[in-house]
Amino acid sequence: MTNPPTPDALDTYTLNMGPQHPSTHGVLRMKLTLRGEEIVVAEPIIGYSHRAHEKMAENRTYAQFLPNTSRQDYLCGMIYNFAWVEAVEKMAGITVPERALVARVILAEFNRIASHLLWIGAFLLDLGAATPFLYAWDDREAILFLLESVTGSRLTYCTGRFGGLSKDLDADFPRRAREVVAKLKGRWNEYVRLIEDNVIFINRTKGVGVMSRDLCLSYGVTGPTLRGSGVPYDVRKAEPYGAYPRFAFDVVTREEGDVFARYMVRALEMQQSVRIIEQALEQLPEGPILNPDSIGVKKRLKLPVGTQYYAVESARGHYGILIVSEGAPEPYRAKFRTPSYPNLAVLADLMPGHMVADAVAVLGSVDLVMPEVDR
Amino acid sequence: MTAPAEIARAVEHLGATVPAPIEHPFAGAAEVRWIAPRRLPEACRIVRDAGYFFESLTCVDRLAGHGAFELIYTFNRYEAPASSRVAWRVWSPAGESVPTLSGVFGAANWNEREAWELYGVTFAGHPNLTWLLLPEGTEWRPLLKTFTAPPASRYDDSQRVSPAHDDEPAHP
Question: What is the ipTM of this complex?
Answer without folding.
Answer: 0.85
